[in-house]
Amino acid sequence: MNIKPDIEFISQIKEISKSPVKTCMQCGECSVVCTLAPEDRPFPRKEMIWTGWGLKDKLMSNPDIWLCHQCGDCSTHCPRDIKPADVISSLRQMSYRHHAKPAFMGKLLSEIKYLPLALLLPIIAILAIIYSAGTLTIPEGPVLYSKFFPHGWLNSSFTLITLIVVILTLVSLKKFWNNMKGFVPESGNIKKKPLIKSILEAKREVLTHSNFGKCETDKSRRVNHFLVLHGFIILLLVTALAIVATLTGNYPLSFMHPVKIAGNIAAIMLIAGTVGMMINRLMKKPGTGNSNYFDWIFLLAIFLLTVTGVLVEMARFQNWSLAYHIYFIHLVLVWFLIIYAPYTKFGHFIYRFTAMVFGKRYGR
Questions:
Q1: Is the dihedral angle over the CA atoms 8, 14, 20, 24 positive or is it negative?
Q2: Statement: residue 255 has pLDDT above 80
Q3: Residues 147-164 pLDDT 10s
Q4: Where are the domains of the chain?
């Protein structure tokens, strides 16, 4: 077999991970201490070897980089302090860009120098819609956000942009799934599990975060990730119910409405989870690994989205003079998160879940 190393790819991984991948002596300690690695072809040893060889295509089609839960046990026990967990994390970041459709969107969120341009896209889109609705002014009187961004325009534009993102994500995931098929051994002994059963098993693991509980280095990561995931799920349900309320003429909701209460609970969960993650990274706790722009842009976006959402609610009930300005910032953050979901670390969930389903289906 001819091996064609991608030298640029090796340099990119070294730059992102800050890891001297070439000094790995392939001792296998990382795979031995990993409680999640399967007995057959365990990770992350083979990933470290392939990275050192620059086998980009092989790594980008490898579901194992997503089955790793970044607990840091391998990095903690590495005798040469190479940080295999950071290497695996950098491989996932490269995977976003590799599978991104359109490709430039993956690059747009990869470096801080592109952030102004990334923010400009949702700002221009929102301003254009409000202008088309004829409400591009600060309304007078009691705060009522529908006077600034009419519900019909908001719901239709929100639905359209979400649909476009979902379609682009599915195209990327199809490419990802087909690439992973090349990772399945051609032994003929693999019995495929039904797809629905694989999805249900993966869903149960994701919702309970059971694999995070197997990690030894930092147990708090399970709590933080659990809060963020379930807080976001609740917030999605609340948003859907709020849209229904606008369509049936039952909006705005009172502060003590069950949907509003659920939204506030979700906000507390999201703030607690993201703050916990940020503290772990700032304190450089074991298992958090090397933090970079890619990690922080996602955490800050979720945190600011939640905080501005709470402020938007307070501004409406207390008729703040800056209510519509805060609302506009909140909308930009909402659209930022939706538009770039497959290309930020939010895509982490999407790709990991897909890889977990693939692993269940093919007995990985």
A1: negative
A2: yes
A3: 999 989 998 998 899 999
A4: 7-99, 103-361
pLDDT of 293: 84
- Residue 353, both tokens: 């879940």
- C-alpha dihedral sign at 116, 118, 122, 128: positive
Hey, is 349 helix, strand or coil? helix
Residue 118: name the closest of 358, 341, 272, 350 by CA: 341
| Alpha carbon distances (Å) from 108 to 52, 116, 118, 121, 312 | 27, 10, 6, 11, 28
What is the rounded distance in angstroms from the CA atom of residue 351 to the CA atom of residue 358? 10
Question: CA 227, CA 152: separation in Å to the nearest integer?
Answer: 32
Report d(CA 228, CA 101) in Å as an integer. 26
Helix, strand or coil, per DSSP, at residue 318? helix
To the question of domain 7-99 being in CATH 3.20.20.70, the answer is no
Q: Do 260 and 254 form a contact (C-beta atoms < 8 A)?
A: yes
Name the residue among 251, 194, 203 with its Cα closest to residue 354. 203
- The 10s digit of each residue's pLDDT in 307-335 is 999 999 999 999 999 999 999 999 999 99
Torsion of CA 163, 359, 86, 92, to 10 degrees: -30
Q: Using one digit for the tens of pLDDT, what is the confidence trace for 105-124?
A: 877 887 889 999 999 999 99
pLDDT of 287 > 60? The answer is no
Residue 364, Cβ neighbours under 10 Å: how many?
A: 18
* Two structure tokens written together for 231: 């807080």
Give the whole-angstrom CA distance, residue 68 versus residue 66.
5
Query: What's the predicted TM-score (pTM) here?
Result: 0.86
Q: How far is CA 247 from CA 108, 160, 327, in A?
A: 35, 16, 20
- Please, is 14 exposed, middle or buried when counting C-beta atoms within 10 Å of its C-beta (0-12, 13-18, 19+)? middle
Cβ neighbour number for residue 102 with a 10 Å cutoff? 12
- Assess whether pLDDT exceeds 90 at residue 254: no
Question: Encoding tokens for residue 192?
Answer: 């495929």
Q: What DSSP letter does each residue of 211-262 carry, written as one string? A: TGGG--S-THHHHHHHHHHHHHHHHHHHHHHHHHHHHTT--SPPTTSHHHHH
